[in-house]
Amino acid sequence: MSFPDKHQRKTCWDARDKFWECLDEHNIKDNSDHPKACAEFRKLFENSCPPKWVSHFDRKRDYNIFKVQMQKEGFEPIKDAA
To answer: How far is CA 18 from each of CA 7, 21, 26, 34, rounded to the nearest angstrom?
Structure first.
């Protein structure tokens, strides 16, 4: 597959945003958990974007959620077992 043109990129990003909005509406934080209500949005997302982009965007959403959680809750450093 050649690199997506401007229209294809916009279609991909719009499909991604709709899928993410659906996940947010259902309070889904884990990308591996897809509610049935979002199945059509996921399918559209996967059909609108190159597979590498889908996996990249999935990881990006997971990281963004993790980053927000760390900013809100902080973290506890790992203690040495020595």
So the answer is: 17, 5, 13, 13
What single-letter DSSP state applies at residue 49? S
Interatomic CA distance for residues 24 and 56, integer angstroms: 18
The percentage of residues in the chain with a pLDDT greater than 70, rounded to a whole number, is: 88
C-beta of residue 16 within 8 angstroms of C-beta of residue 31: no
Question: How many Å apart are CA 55 and CA 74, to the nearest integer?
Answer: 27
3-state secondary structure 12-31: HHHHHHHHHHHHHHCCCCCC
| pTM for this entry | 0.78
